[in-house]
Amino acid sequence: MADGTRALFMLFGGTGDLALRKLYPALFNLYKKGSLSKHFALLGLSRKELSDEEFRAKIMTSIADETADQQVATEFVSHFYWKSHDVNNMDHYQDLKKIGNQLDDQYQTGGNRVFYVSMAPRFFGIVAQNLQSQHVLSENGGFNRLVIEKPFGRDYQSAKELNDQLNSGFQENQIFRIDHYLGKETVEAIPVLRFGNPLLEAVWNQNYIKDVQITLAESLGVEDRAGYYDTAGALRDMIQNHTLQIVSYLAMDQPNSFVDTAIRAEKVKALESMEIYTDQGVKDNFVRGQYAGDEDHPDYRHESGVPVDSNNDTFAAGKIVFNNPRWGKTPFYIRSGKKLADKQGRVDIEFKKPLVDIFAKGTGTTGELQKNVLTLEIDPRVGLSLTINTKDSKQGLHTETVPLDYLQSDNRAAQVPLPYERLFHDILNGDGTYFASWPEVAAAWHFVDPVQQVWDTQQPDFPNYQQGSMGPTAADELLARDGNAWFYRGTK
Ligand code: NDP
Ligand code: BG6
């Protein structure tokens, strides 16, 4: 068993929604697969007063769906401990230090510590600073890693302030900023598809690709998260992080090797070469939306917890232009929104048609060559498909388009690790490949801030799209102006 699998986790927000729904099941799966050694312990923390037994009962409930063997589950939860802890109370950190050292000895963790802050973002910096100032970090040669959730700031300035706070206790290579989209199978596969297949990489540029389209559509609305979502909106909630991370994997140049530092360097270069829009550029290249109601469902402004005069965006679409030799003339279109036609995460890459369509002019031929389109399906299906032109089977020469499809089988899907399982695995191995680095986050905010600033100062005409549609018509017009159209139109 590698040393990386020895660790003490200190989980701040140990009874929170994310921890109970996602984090414990993911850790349990790692434990079952043997990736987490018996030399691990988890100290759950929040203000609640719980006994270890009460905490373990919560974990049992949390992992129930993943539990086939009760004995393994019981063994797993025996590694869990609880401490009531207020992150603002300095005295409480002295207890953490003591308990941490005891658990290190008891479980022979090698002094490796993972501090996971699964709490509201305003606590990320406080915890990082206090861990450092109160000497809770391990000092005996083990690793100290800090894991934080989203959102990472609400603009560049607040993100920078947060990053400075984190840096007071942790170096960049010790900080793991979770973006759960980077734990999704298709997203993780992008570098392999590109750099493992000369067939694709050879044409992965403005000479052959007409446009790239990224759609992260949700059919759900704001649900019970208005408190957070109404202060964020689609641009901050889905575009600044998940969407631009996917853009960076699609747009980056080939790294020297597949190690996190080299990959991150290329991703940053790609993100930094996105054109930053002027106010006019924002108006021309970005579209926002808010969903309307129908007979059975309220509009966004009448969802529970949303102010009736809210101008928050529940949909955002935009065009990205790169100032670099690979992508100069190829637009990347992005869109994400709530209450759209389907839950659908995908990338559609449209290739250029041949300069001359000889079949359109040949004697006795009919039809017109179509674009080749490579589709990467992220959610809910995992797969890829390439549409190509071929001859149909009728008499004479007629061209038709057929898909070359790969769809992940149910059998294979059942073996795929959960996103948080992959990410925990990488944290334990110190591999930052599928986490957002600070320069990437900064570049993403530099791109998004001017859009948000224009939107904050101008009154929108909301609501402007129907529930169950694919967003406002302006999002279609955005592409139409370039002679393009969204490849994915929704199933409704
Ligand atoms: P919750 O509100 O469910 O949990 C917050 C936790 O923080 C609770 O355990 C709470 O326990 C604890 N807490 C609050 N104040 C203090 C304090 N002063 N000292 C110590 N503990 C405190 O949040 P979520 O689990 O939903 O979210 C956690 C993080 O994950 C956030 O950054 C969120 O943005 C992110 N996230 C969540 C997702 C989700 O699906 N839930 C999805 C993606 C990201 P107590 O009251 O007992 O102190
Ligand atoms: C989260 C956003 O980061 O991603 C949510 O805060 C959104 O608003 C969610 O619903 C979508 O994630 P997934 O994995 O369901 O596509």
UniProtKB/TrEMBL annotation:
Residue stretches making up the Glucose-6-phosphate dehydrogenase C-terminal domain: 192-486
Binding site for NADP(+): 47, 86-87, 150
Entries under InterPro entries matching the protein: G6P_DH, G6P_DH_AS, G6P_DH_C, G6P_DH_NAD-bd, NAD(P)-bd_dom_sf
Positions of substrate binding: 180, 184, 218, 237, 338, 343
Catalytic reaction list: D-glucose 6-phosphate + NADP(+) = 6-phospho-D-glucono-1,5-lactone + NADPH + H(+)
A single cellular component GO annotation: cytosol
Active site: 242
Keywords: Carbohydrate metabolism, Glucose metabolism, NADP, Oxidoreductase
Role of this protein: Catalyzes the oxidation of glucose 6-phosphate to 6-phosphogluconolactone.
HAMAP family in the record: G6PD
UniProt family annotation: Belongs to the glucose-6-phosphate dehydrogenase family.
Protein name from the UniProt record: Glucose-6-phosphate 1-dehydrogenase
Annotated source species: Fructilactobacillus florum DSM 22689 = JCM 16035
Gene that produces this protein: zwf
